[in-house]
Specification:
With 514 residues, the protein is an alpha/beta fold. It has 15 helices and 19 strands. It binds flavin-adenine dinucleotide and NADP nicotinamide-adenine-dinucleotide phosphate. Flavin-adenine dinucleotide (FAD) is lined by residues 54-60, 77-80, 85, 88-90, 93, 97, 99-101, 106, 146-147, 177-181, 366, 370, 401, 410-412.
Amino acid sequence: MADTLHHAKSVVGFAITQPLSFVYILIQNVLNWIFAPVPPPPTDKLRRPRIAVIGAGLTGVSSAAHCVGHGFDVKIFETRSREKGLGGIWSRVNSTSALQIHSIMFRFHPSVKWDTAYPQQQDIKKQIASVWKTYGLDKKTVFETPVTSIKKNASSGRWVINDNEQEHGSFDGIIAAVGSCGDPQMPRLPDHDKFNGPTYHSSELDGKDVEGKKILIIGGGASAVEALEFAVQNHAAEIDVLSRSDKWIIPRNVFVDVLLSLNVFGGETSFSWIPEWLLRKFFYRDLEDISPAKKGLYTDTPMVNSELFDQIRAGKARWLRGDIVNVQNEGIMFNHRAQGVPKGGPGHESLVRGDVIIMATGYKRPSLAFLPDNVFEKGYEPPNWYLQVFPPQDPTICATNSTYVNAIGTVGNYHIGIYTRFLLMFLVDPLSRPRESLMKLWIGFTRTLKKFAPTKAFDFFTYAELIYWYCFVSIINPFRWKWVPFIFFGLFRGLPLAIVEEEDHIRGLNGKAK
Ligand SMILES: Cc1cc2nc3c(=O)[nH]c(=O)nc-3n(C[C@H](O)[C@H](O)[C@H](O)COP(=O)(O)OP(=O)(O)OC[C@H]3O[C@@H](n4cnc5c(N)ncnc54)[C@H](O)[C@@H]3O)c2cc1C
Ligand SMILES: NC(=O)c1ccc[n+]([C@@H]2O[C@H](COP(=O)([O-])OP(=O)(O)OC[C@H]3O[C@@H](n4cnc5c(N)ncnc54)[C@H](OP(=O)(O)O)[C@@H]3O)[C@@H](O)[C@H]2O)c1
């Protein structure tokens, strides 16, 4: 009784002192209560379809949690150890790495509960591990097991991983959740060996001493911004970012970010100049020169940051556009280019001095080569797949967040559950499953709709376009209508399952999906 009273008092105290955080946590508890599938009891025997999930990052863990929460069995295969693999890329970056988008856009599973707007690496890892544990996935994960092949057993028609049916069993569906950021990419710069100081990758900055030093950051993406913030926080003397191509930067403001992702055409339109003009005038302001001159906002994933410009204005860092000529003992010979001059174009050279080089040059893309050869058919290779993730040759494979190139949206969000439920629907309800010719028709249709976009149809999309895709393919096939509450919200799966059994019965399949 005394404990309950004490707890109630502390909740009221929290609500009064931090009302916004209180409301945020309350909303997340409500979302969890309505939308998170109930974890199966430890003794519960899960049924088929059985799904192989490849990758234990947030996409793999969330997808697997959705499957078991709806009563279907899974096995997760992760190439790395538990320490480096569980949590995916978030287990391999700096402890100071943080979300640049608001965490409300990064609720990768309905049970996730953020207590801050911009959580850091440890919080993100913790949430991934918590979903993994809550849904009993610890007993269903094999670490240090890279998937190198998936093949169909000719007699059962089920998927076999790494030719090892004896150990792993067989599977009805595959979720390839290998992500888009693999090992660090560390290109050698011309004459790199001549440099007097150390060179680090931007993901390996924990414990590195930069105090009082001149820092040269190579690259102009989100990791360059993070490296810049790390250098500022650790009292570097001077910071120069050497960027060879321009990217749009948008404010760290949840309303602006959501608004920009609401472009349902998923590409440049004749109205794109409006947000671009507004960003230049009201966000870049005196730093308009850094904005891309010839690249539309809806062509490339923008960086989300509001502090970068303040650091530049305060003289703590410089953002230089141009090409690296070579590395010298004391720095980098750099060809500075003016706004709008393309990579490798004319400029003026000068030596940018530095003591430490940070390579913010990105990550190698994990391979999907373990998938069967036929899913890489010319013209229908990833990302040119049905809903971008289902190869038209076989919709029992779903490569969530692994075919993604560029977008305005978020990787760790609601769509992970939607894709998983589409896959489950295709597996349990044969009448809802798309045929290869129709999937290719949808891909062709989307290409035609986006033929004026500067990027290829599936190389850039927005979150609003993704939602439109889901609505379109749900409405187009009447056998999917009964699944709509399940696909979009994970609710009421009992009803469509009962109808499917009835349909199978009528079709003489005795309740067995064929
Ligand atoms: C520093 C940083 C910050 C980021 N911030 C944001 C952000 O704010 N917002 C946002 O939307 N995105 C952000 N991202 C993008 C990030 O990729 C996603 O947030 C998300 O972590 C992707 O999760 P994932 O599970 O899809 O992939 P990953 O986390 O990369 O996990 C994939 C897993 O698959 C495993 N794997 C790969 N191949 C195989 C194989 N053949 N067999 C078995 N296992 C395999 C890998 O070992 C890995 O553990 C950020 C990325 C970085 C690097
Ligand atoms: N907190 C966050 O939200 C956050 C933080 C970090 C990363 N991320 C995400 O992680 C992913 C990777 O981001 P990233 O910034 O690491 O990589 P990135 O977006 O691929 O950017 C790499 C940068 O390095 C440049 N580069 C590559 N090789 C080079 C070379 N040899 N010489 C000079 N420049 C070179 C690239 O230029 P070109 O473009 O010309 O090739 C590019 O500017 C993205 O999806 C990003 O959104 C997010």
